[in-house]
Structures are given as C-alpha cells and as structure tokens.
Amino acid sequence: MAQKKSNWKRRVVGLLLMYVLMFVGYQYYEKKVVEREQFEMMIHVTNECIRVGDWKCAEKNVRELLKSEPDDTNLQMHMAGILFEQERYQECISYIESLNFKHKDLDYLVEKSNALEQELKNLGVEKSMHFRLEFDGGPSKKDVMEALAVLEVAYDSISNLFDFLPENKMSLVLYEDKEYQGTGPRPDWVGAVFDGKLRVPVNMMAYREVYRPVLFHELTHAFVRAMTRAKVPCWMNEGIAQVIDGSRNNEEHPAGAKPSIESLRKSFVKETDAATVKKLYWFSKRMVEELLWRDGGGPEAFRKFAKCLQDLRELGMDGSLKKHYGMTAQELLESVK
C-alpha cells in the first residue's frame, strides 16, 4: 500500500514538472516570437526610413538592431552607408576599418569618402536654405549666388510637382578643375552630372539659357534619388529630368529602329555614339510624357509618377508600371510613335 502511494506521488510530481517545463517552454517560445516580431517591425521601419532618406531615423534603428545581431554583415553595411549619406565621411571610414570582413561596396564607400573629404578641405562653400554649394577656383560671387537662386526656384517647383520634400540638404559643386567632376570615366558629351552631388562646370554659368535647364535637370535626378533607394531605370530618370528641364521640346523623331528596353534601362553614360545617345534620350522623354499624358499632365500626373518610382524598390520596373499604369515597359515603348 505504501509502495503504491509512493508511486502515485512520483507520478504526480512528474506530471507537475512536465507541466511546469511545458509552461516555461511556451513562455520562452512566446517571448522569442514577440522579439522576432519586434525585430521584423524595426527592420520594416528602418527600410522605410532609408527609402525616404531619413538618415537619423535609419541610424538609430540600425544601431538598435545591431545590439541584437552584432555580427550581421548586412546591418553593418547599411550602417556604413548611412554614415556616408550623412556626409560623416571620417566616421564612415573608421567604422568600415573596424569591421572584420571585406566587400567591394565598402571599398567603394572608403574611396568615395576619402575623395569627398578632400573636396571639403579644398573647396569654398556657400549655403542657402536647401543647398550647400561647393566651388573650386574663383567663380564670381554673382555666379555662386545665381546658381543658388536658380536651385531654390527649381527646388520649390519640383517639390510641388512631386508633393515631396527631401529630408536632407543637397550639395552642388561648381568646378573648373576636372578633379572635381566626380568619379568614373565619362564620354565628352556628358557635361553636368549627379553622383550624390550636383556637379556643374562653372563655365556653364556664363549662359543662362544653358545653366538654367541644366540645374533643373540635375536637381530632378537628386529628387528621384531622394524619393527612392531603388535602382531607377535610366529611361525613367532621364525622361522625367528632360520633361522638367524643358530643353528638348522640339526635337524630331530619330531615324531608325526603336532602342531595346535593356538599352533604355541601363546607364547612358557608357554610350559613346552620339546618334544612339540622342535616340535613347528622345525615347526616354517620350515614354515618360506618355505616362504623364495618360493622367492629364498636371500635378496629379507627376505625383502618380513619383509613387511609381517609389514602388520600384518592392515591385521592380514592370511590376510598378503595371500597378500604376496597367502596362509593361515594352508595351509603353511600343505605344510611342
């Protein structure tokens, strides 16, 4: 009898221990699920901060995520890029040097940071509400202030068209020395460029009919970059910039066959044939105009195009075009006459 009672107690104790372990295990599982959901939510918020260029928000969240995943190389690369985007070049370099892995994107950030840090030391600086203007040589005060004035007008116009205000100040470099024209080789037909900074040769400032559309054009590229972190197809980027700068409104249809979507998607800067370049720019402008005309060509049409750009990151080129316009890029190209 005593033996049966002892066995019964052991079974009860065993069952209680099992239930306790199950309860503790469930509680641990629930905690991990909540932590993972919070982690995923923070990643979502961080991606949104990066998408809109809110670098302070992005930095705060990435630093918090790194506390949970200190060896996550993807987070570490994002951290380096966020420091770079805030023009904290020395911090960016030091952070990359502290990492225990190598990557070509990190090498690029170090190279670019060193070059831009040297620019900051060498160039003169003027500022306006939305711009930091850097210049080498001795451009006249008139040229510098005229560039800032045109940029502020362009900023207001483009921000109203897209209903979008960039989070950060933008940088313009007025240069004489080719050292400051930006990194990478480019053909002779390329004048001003946007590579994170608007870069304009100072000799353009002598001709208002030249520099005004150029500044509008390059500033449009800056807005596109601020609106989306996606890799924007070149035809969309160059097309909307031409529409806004208004400098190629009377060009005739180029002779020959239409370009391919692939040639319109990739960068035009590597193209050396002048006739091909002209054709790529013409079709880019007409394709974007076709999208804008479908919605009346007014402010709402530009805002819809901006939303299409912003959805490129998640949906890709054809996915975003189908969502907003009900067609693929190839179908759009075929509609251009």
Automatic annotation (TrEMBL):
<feature type="transmembrane region" description="Helical">
    <location>
        <begin position="12"/>
        <end position="29"/>
    </location>
</feature>
<protein>
    <recommendedName>
        <fullName>Peptidase MA-like domain-containing protein</fullName>
    </recommendedName>
</protein>
<keyword id="KW-1133">Transmembrane helix</keyword>
<keyword id="KW-0812">Transmembrane</keyword>
<dbReference type="InterPro" id="IPR011990">
    <property type="entry name" value="TPR-like_helical_dom_sf"/>
</dbReference>
<keyword id="KW-0472">Membrane</keyword>
